[in-house]
Records
---
Amino acid sequence: MTASRLLIWLPKDQRKPLLQRLLIVWLVAFPIAVATWMGHKSDGLPHRFDVSLVYAYAISTCIWLFTDVSRFVFKRLLRSQGPHHWPPALRASLMLLLGIPLGYVLGTLVGDAYAGWSTWDLWHFNRNRFAGMVVSSVAISAAFVAFFYQRAKAESLAQEVTQSQLMLLQSQLEPHMLFNTLAHLRALIGHDTGRALAMLDHLNDYLRTTLQASRQPVHQPLHPLADEFSRLHDYLSLMAIRMGPRLVFELDLPPALAAARVPSFILQPLVENAIRHGLEPVVAGGRIVVQARAEGDQLLLTVRDNGCGISQLALTESTHALMPATERPVASWGLTHVRQRLHTLYSERAGMHISPVPTGGTCVVLTLPLATPAAT
């Protein structure tokens, strides 16, 4: 039976972090075993090194099970919430108060069974050593849990900040499009009712999906790729009515990838940059192609245009997140934001590559883990 089948009850994005935390616990358990063994040697008491190893690993693993794994098993009772599934402070404290002693007792029983004696007998002839052993074990375990908890909180806070930046970016990008669209709509109503109605329908759909995306919970940052493409279709249809024959677009989404989960609003800044900075400055306009492809366990999202190309300044600054947003070119701000969101959500598992097209224009490729509802 593979590890993935054993951990199928866990959220997919938490399986690897859970095993990483277990590995850290085991790495630290080894020096604890060495220290325990050396302590017994200094007392002149017979104590084999393998016995110290079993006690250290059994106790640390059991405490890990009762404090880390249990929050997923009892997530409803603990009211644990994603993305890191830590329960509220009071319930987390109660979980630790129960989980650490239970893990210590169970781990000690496993060690006793291996060693052939009872640790609890130590209480009768050396209470100070017994108390010191219990306190040190519990303190080390509590320190580990506190470290993992604070790290998860920090990651969650970073994601909330990124979502807030997303809302700010939307507030900057959408008025430019909305005001121009309404002005064009007013002009069309008088002499081309059909195009005006089509434009109004696309605007209605676009605003509805935008509102839904803005209300998306922070702990649920992903949505189906089909929704992302549907939003782009409405946006590009609006732009095509505004620009007329100057804008041609193609959306290529294979049916097999329609349910793949992607960050909401991740392609919109790229498409808007392509129009505003690639096609609009060109008298003849141009073409935009948005494409989704799967390569193994990776999802590739490509936005390509044949416009005037990205400036070297925007291309350079898009890789520097520390530059104040007010000092960046608008194109660079959008690109930087997309890069930051990918890093926050996927760390090193995702990336963005920007390159000029030899025949003219810009190609932006996003690479991120391929996630589907069945795999999450």
---
Amino acid sequence: MRLDRYLVTLGIGSRTEVQKLIRSGVVTVDGNPVRDPGFACREPADLTLRGETLDTRLMRHVMLHKPAGLLTAARDKKQPTVMDLLPPVYAAIGCMPVGRLDKDTTGLLLLSCDGELNHRLLAPQRHVDKTYLAHVDGELTPAMADAFAAGLDLGDFVTQGAALTILEPHLAQLTIHEGKFHQVKRMFEHVGLTVTALHRSSFGPLTLPEDLPEGQWRELTAEETAAVYQSAQMEAKL
């Protein structure tokens, strides 16, 4: 990749800005100053800017503990999004949410630079589990658990069998395979209940760590990354 394009992709600046930086001699490649914006770089490259080493990885995977009140979107002109919680470089390299959590839903959100991984993890036929804790405004019953397991006809689609475990009269754990728009809330509405609070505790092989507070994030470990790719039946991209 051209050096100037690499720096733009990393969010260092516009093409004009990074070309000016390169020509001024403040960028090094493998320890050597490079003044040619068209210099061909390997990926990942060993780059510094004004003596500071740059993180040049273009493939990153992030686990975020989403708080309520944020849209799950790359950007929005009027409302804050989950991307506002991450340094700008993640948006610059194309690290995007894998699926969506509603604005008022909290919990585990995966973000990745790998579009194919995103697509595969969301494909219903791959049966990637998503587990939620749902507080509802009425009493849960065993008959509801049976109905969820059999699949619910929501009009525009029939849900796959889902595992509903009643934890308390108004609290349940629900594991589904799909992730359609407002699906969990619609499933409970179908049996006469309204979800008052919803939290995703796990996504595929990932479980939200107890030591990751709301609004905080971290990159996946190598082991977590490998497990996510395995669930998508892909070779891991670290």
---
Amino acid sequence: MRNVIVVGLALWAAVAQAGFEVGFSRVDVTPPLGTELSGYFHKRVSDGVLDTLQANALAFSDGTNKAVVISVDVISLRAYAELYRAGVAKATGLPPEAIFLSATHTHTGPVLGVSHYGDVAKDFADANTYVRSLGDRLASAAQLALTDLAPATIAVARGEAKNISFIRRYRMKDGSVRTNPGLDNPQIAGPIGAADEEVQLVRFDREGREAVALVNFQCHPDTIGGNKISADWPREVRETVERALNGVKCVCLNGAQGDTNHICTDSSKNVPRGRNVVFRHMGRKIAGAAIGIWDECVPVNAGAVRYAVSWVRTASNRPKASEIPEARRITELAAAGKDSEIPGIGMQKTTNKAWARRVMRLIDGPDFFELPISTIVIGDALAFAGFPGEPFTAYGLAVKKGSPYKMTLPACLTNGSYGYLPVASAFAEGGYEARSSFYTEALEKDLVGGQLEQLKRLLTH
């Protein structure tokens, strides 16, 4: 029996389809110029805006119970997720478990501060004005969505967006595993797995209000680089859908993307490359898939709005004593700006720095972590399955396959950011994501199993 601590599990009787309502809102969350950008192991300071960042919110009501899903254009909400969620709950009067905050994971958005393993309250009090004000903007997005509630119906469809998302972990001919090993690397034996190219679309038609398209796809939004603020491909999805479908608003929810990105290592394949090109191509293909199936959506019956957050206990990847001296040496070199002396080239060097950081953080424990899994469901029609980090593709596939709902939307970086969430086999294989992860091979079973149990529990009660 897994050690699952259930917080605020809502159990209600079914309600009539006629009571179902959906609300939408959009709030600008763009930080000021000069804000440090997140996503890499070197400092970047924003010096311009390619496109504004947004918080897109959906509110749901069954006539009695309400919940809010917010997709926000930041790399993650880091340790502040619980504080932000509590603030949204206070502003709306909803239980914290009814608030689903998911980051799109853009790598050209603001740094939001500490990891989950520091003094969160102190760091938040000392944070810059933007970090503190983001919570107010998220609360506003939720409040506006709740005031926009209108009678609605649900319909769903599935499509594909091919050749834009690629597994980034490769087995090399010498048996090692590398992340992003480079274009046309002759030592590549092949990718470890395959990307999930499915586009899931939920269509909400609302009485007297704009319809809403909710698009679910999975890939790292890391196509741009540089020092300009941008929401990357999720923004292009939203804008393309809204240009093509008159009177429709679009929300984009990023899925299980921890082991995929936009980089195709085979130059013979005809895929766009280069900054400010790839994100538009990706966004248009994902949006194109959604637009193409918009009129093919199949109606599904709405039902009771239910929600839960559970805390799953999983083992910590404590370092061996023999690893500590090398980890300390690499950490000191990185702090001194002496990256040239750190072993490896390209992504290998980044992997070694991430490994050293993980080792140093876990020298004194803990032996276990408790990670939140978040779920919101609407009858047996629709489920939001949130993971508090960057889950590998297999997490999303397993949840979609095992879920009893008509459509289940996996979401990364929901109500927390606890790093990469690799599959069990990755820990023995290696690579950036596994070597930097704070967890063990038990993680996949703990989190996927916990999410599926929670989905089923919400359906049967």
